[in-house]
Amino acid sequence: MSVVTVQLGQCGNQIGQELFKAIGDDSSSGQGLCSEGQKQAYAACSQERFFFLEQSGVPSARAVLIDMEPKVISQTMATAAKSGRWKYGDQSYFCQKQGSGNNWANGFCAHGPRHEEAVLDLVRREAERCERLAGFFTMMSVAGGTGSGMGTYITQCLRDTYPHSFLLNQVTWPYSTGEVIVQNYNSVLTLSHLYQSSDAILVHENDTVHKICSQLMNIKHISFQDVNKVIAHQLGSVLQPAYTSAVDTQYSRNPLGDLMSSLVCHPEYKLLSLRNIPQMSDSSLEYSVFAWPGLLKHLRQMLIANAKMEEGIDWQVRASQSRPSTGQKGNPSKHLRFNTSLANLLILRGRDVYSADTGGFAEPLLYSSWLPAEVAFNTWRSPKHFNRYEKSATLVSNSQSLLKPLDSIVGKAWNMFASRAYVHQYTKFGISEEDFLDSFTTLEQVISSYTHL
Amino acid sequence: MTQSIVVQVGQCGNQVGCRFWDLALREHAHVNKKGIYDEALSSFFRNVDTRTSAGEGIRGGKISSLKARAVLIDMEEGVVNEILQGPLREVFDSKQLITDVSGSGNNWAVGHKVYGCTYREQIVENLRKAAEHCDCLQCFFVIHSMGGGTGSGLGTFVLNLLEDEFPEVYRIVTSVYPSAEDDVITSPYNSVLAMRELTEHADCVLPIENQSLVDIVNKIKQMAYSGKPGAVIKQDSTIISGRGGVSSLEKPFDAMNNIVANLLLNLTSSARFEGSLNMDLNEIAMNLVPFPRLHYLVPSLTPLYTLADVNIPSRRLDQMFTDAFSRDHQLIHADPKHSLYLACALMVRGNVQVSDLRRNIERLKPSLQFVSWNQEGWKTGLCSVPPVGHSHSLLALANNTCIKPTLVELKDRFMRLYRKKAHLHHYLNVDGMEQACFTEAVSSLTSLIGEYEQLDATKGLLAAEAPRLNIAV
Ligand SMILES: Nc1nc2c(ncn2[C@@H]2O[C@H](COP(=O)(O)OP(=O)(O)O)[C@@H](O)[C@H]2O)c(=O)[nH]1
Ligand SMILES: Nc1nc2c(ncn2[C@@H]2O[C@H](COP(=O)(O)OP(=O)(O)O)[C@@H](O)[C@H]2O)c(=O)[nH]1
């Protein structure tokens, strides 16, 4: 089955380009697979998912690129074409001349409706080129204007036009001290609306990934490209072909559907976060050897102690039933040390994957009481090495781990809203104070639900 | 890419405008060595083929004749004629000009009411023509002075026209405020009358005080002739001398106007050139203006004398950031450090990294006070093309309550005249001008002052977090 990717705004387009590159690179190396047949099967499955083979023979990404200004898109398309190994469709982009000016309302109320038809046409063309459509994967930041506002609008359109397709949104959360002053408003408006129309929201926090770049990858002057490579690596490790059960001989046919059914069992809980191990610079990787028990022990502790990377994990935290006492509202993060999960999906890739013991993730204590651990925990495997890593593990979680950053975004936006600062910039485009209040209510509800998991 | 149109009104507006065009041409010539008409050039210039007189040149083709995207308005002929005889005559054609012969007599009412009425059609016509040459018009830059009659009166009339005719296009106004010793006696009237228009009809105003420009120019000169080893004015310098530009004669205001021109160059650099963190013009108001009337952004430019003009051993990059917050780098008489920030933008040019930005923000933050609901009120832009002859530069725009003393002083000067009814009849004799114009203008200013005052009073108070919405579990 095939996935149609929709990249929106500067961030979405820049990360999207890195993702297709990572996927292409990974598929072209068959390391870890024994037979030529296996290698071809993997490459063919990945190909079917993400690329369309044009007559020229150059794979063309099953993607639609959208931005309200031309600079980023032309750069993205040129970079892809230059690689010689893949490209974007010549006609698969839509751009205008003037950006959304960091205004969600501009993207959502003005640009979205104005360009809906053109964008949906592009998406339809891409969807019709898929023999079987698995669903849509949209990528965008929540802090700007185009990705956030127009991305939200387009997500709603996709939901209306393709009511039975899966819809996965990858969203990038802003640095906490930002490049955009109204980023918390834009984030609140985006997330609250996406919560209504998306099946699952996969979150990357720029602060976290930035830290990974500096502490694990040892990069001195970190650029967006460095950050995007890490994000692309994590996404690739989830989206590339894998066996969804130990007895499978065929790769999952329905990557988005399988992901949703493993992780999103209740519409009130659809925030997903990612952790992976190992993650290091190329030069360190050469000198490192890994064993599954060590990797999984670390990854499990990262999960329960809510660490986003291997460094600085709190080993004191234990899985426990202790619930935050209700009534201590306002700052839920304070009372949480143990990160309770609703569901986890573990994806193992590389050597000896079938020998890896994943029992530590299946403990009922890790999960909310109302979902049995057998249902809450799933594992996918693939013996192929992923992206130069002989062994690698990625954990996609539906857990409390995004509670703290979400609470902080909503809190800062709410403080600003109390003074009604900047609200006029949104009313200008038709977003009223009530719309803001509705969005706050939606997200407070989400915070409350996750707090009481 | 988008385009912008400069509307320069009155003597001051036109003189500042010309410095801008001169330096902009030089900047593009420096960056664009091949003489190709590119996107960057197209933001402020048209490329006209004089032989075929075809309107717009094609991007990527050779430059044939550059025309400024500008409308020049003055109600006397002196300044504009001088421009037409000077080295910049090539970039304007007579269809872009609107002039009269008799001037506004430093009377806001004459500029706003009389000339506004007379020239309305012609101005709209010219603006429309300029707009038709743009495929995506984003912004009007109005340049004028507050103290005279034409810039102040007709300039703000044009601002209203822009709002009516082009409601979707941003209006960024550069306003030169008179100093206390200004030779125009009626300048307080003109300024306060113009203030009301700015408050109601501009998206952003960049206030500039002539006295601050004089102080900065003097400081630069002092450094240049201090006799320190190596302290010489660079040949290529843009800041105080017109040398290196197209024009060579120095007029009295030139050094001061160059500073303003540089402000505009820096403000638009991110929209014109590449950068790792673009800051589009429409992001300025969105991020810096939390309440519609509070759109006065205090500018400061660094490095002024250290790295810019005077070739003394260059100081650390971090000094540039420190200076941007010091009192003597502000283009109005103000002290942002001891007042309250509503929001702040840092627009950097040259070889500066995001990490440099983050480090300096972290370093400076403790010494600055931000309003409780915008503790992280920073907006940043990085443009990779530095100003000509330098390695980097910084323009800071502060939405800060430090503007208040300037406004209070302006009001005081106004009241001193107004209580005596001095010169009032010159205004009230003008058709359409009523006493109410004065009272409304001063009450608009008073309430603006009040709004800044209220915010300033929250300085240093630990604001309680707003109680969050309660969700029934
Ligand atoms: N990780 C990452 N974040 C980005 C990138 N570009 C922009 N951002 C983030 O996106 C937000 C700004 O939104 P942007 O995508 O530029 O705006 P848009 O083009 O209007 O959608 C900020 O929070 C930036 O930190 C990128 O390439 N990678
Ligand atoms: N900075 C600067 N100020 C000027 C210039 N020309 C006039 N002014 C100031 O502008 C005010 C007078 O306005 P002016 O522009 O001459 O009058 P107008 O032609 O009627 O608009 C006074 O405060 C002058 O000090 C100039 O070229 N540069």
UniProtKB/TrEMBL annotation, chain A:
<dbReference type="InterPro" id="IPR002967">
    <property type="entry name" value="Delta_tubulin"/>
</dbReference>
<keyword id="KW-0206">Cytoskeleton</keyword>
<dbReference type="InterPro" id="IPR008280">
    <property type="entry name" value="Tub_FtsZ_C"/>
</dbReference>
<protein>
    <recommendedName>
        <fullName>Tubulin delta chain</fullName>
    </recommendedName>
</protein>
<dbReference type="InterPro" id="IPR036525">
    <property type="entry name" value="Tubulin/FtsZ_GTPase_sf"/>
</dbReference>
<keyword id="KW-0342">GTP-binding</keyword>
<dbReference type="GO" id="GO:0005200">
    <property type="term" value="F:structural constituent of cytoskeleton"/>
</dbReference>
<dbReference type="InterPro" id="IPR023123">
    <property type="entry name" value="Tubulin_C"/>
</dbReference>
<dbReference type="GO" id="GO:0005874">
    <property type="term" value="C:microtubule"/>
</dbReference>
<dbReference type="GO" id="GO:0000278">
    <property type="term" value="P:mitotic cell cycle"/>
</dbReference>
<keyword id="KW-0539">Nucleus</keyword>
<comment type="similarity">
    <text>Belongs to the tubulin family.</text>
</comment>
<comment type="function">
    <text>Acts as a positive regulator of hedgehog signaling and regulates ciliary function.</text>
</comment>
<dbReference type="GO" id="GO:0030030">
    <property type="term" value="P:cell projection organization"/>
</dbReference>
<dbReference type="Pfam" id="PF00091">
    <property type="entry name" value="Tubulin"/>
</dbReference>
<keyword id="KW-0547">Nucleotide-binding</keyword>
<dbReference type="GO" id="GO:0005814">
    <property type="term" value="C:centriole"/>
</dbReference>
<dbReference type="GO" id="GO:0005737">
    <property type="term" value="C:cytoplasm"/>
</dbReference>
<dbReference type="GO" id="GO:0005634">
    <property type="term" value="C:nucleus"/>
</dbReference>
<dbReference type="InterPro" id="IPR017975">
    <property type="entry name" value="Tubulin_CS"/>
</dbReference>
<keyword id="KW-0493">Microtubule</keyword>
<keyword id="KW-0963">Cytoplasm</keyword>
UniProtKB/TrEMBL annotation, chain B:
<comment type="similarity">
    <text>Belongs to the tubulin family.</text>
</comment>
<dbReference type="GO" id="GO:0005813">
    <property type="term" value="C:centrosome"/>
</dbReference>
<dbReference type="InterPro" id="IPR004057">
    <property type="entry name" value="Epsilon_tubulin"/>
</dbReference>
<keyword id="KW-0206">Cytoskeleton</keyword>
<dbReference type="InterPro" id="IPR003008">
    <property type="entry name" value="Tubulin_FtsZ_GTPase"/>
</dbReference>
<dbReference type="Pfam" id="PF03953">
    <property type="entry name" value="Tubulin_C"/>
</dbReference>
<dbReference type="InterPro" id="IPR008280">
    <property type="entry name" value="Tub_FtsZ_C"/>
</dbReference>
<comment type="subunit">
    <text>Found in a complex with TEDC1, TEDC2, TUBE1 and TUBD1.</text>
</comment>
<dbReference type="InterPro" id="IPR000217">
    <property type="entry name" value="Tubulin"/>
</dbReference>
<keyword id="KW-0963">Cytoplasm</keyword>
<dbReference type="GO" id="GO:0005525">
    <property type="term" value="F:GTP binding"/>
</dbReference>
<dbReference type="GO" id="GO:0005737">
    <property type="term" value="C:cytoplasm"/>
</dbReference>
<protein>
    <recommendedName>
        <fullName>Tubulin epsilon chain</fullName>
    </recommendedName>
</protein>
<dbReference type="InterPro" id="IPR036525">
    <property type="entry name" value="Tubulin/FtsZ_GTPase_sf"/>
</dbReference>
<dbReference type="GO" id="GO:0005200">
    <property type="term" value="F:structural constituent of cytoskeleton"/>
</dbReference>
<dbReference type="InterPro" id="IPR018316">
    <property type="entry name" value="Tubulin/FtsZ_2-layer-sand-dom"/>
</dbReference>
<keyword id="KW-0493">Microtubule</keyword>
<dbReference type="Pfam" id="PF00091">
    <property type="entry name" value="Tubulin"/>
</dbReference>
<dbReference type="InterPro" id="IPR023123">
    <property type="entry name" value="Tubulin_C"/>
</dbReference>
<dbReference type="GO" id="GO:0000226">
    <property type="term" value="P:microtubule cytoskeleton organization"/>
</dbReference>
<feature type="domain" description="Tubulin/FtsZ 2-layer sandwich">
    <location>
        <begin position="277"/>
        <end position="412"/>
    </location>
</feature>
<dbReference type="InterPro" id="IPR017975">
    <property type="entry name" value="Tubulin_CS"/>
</dbReference>
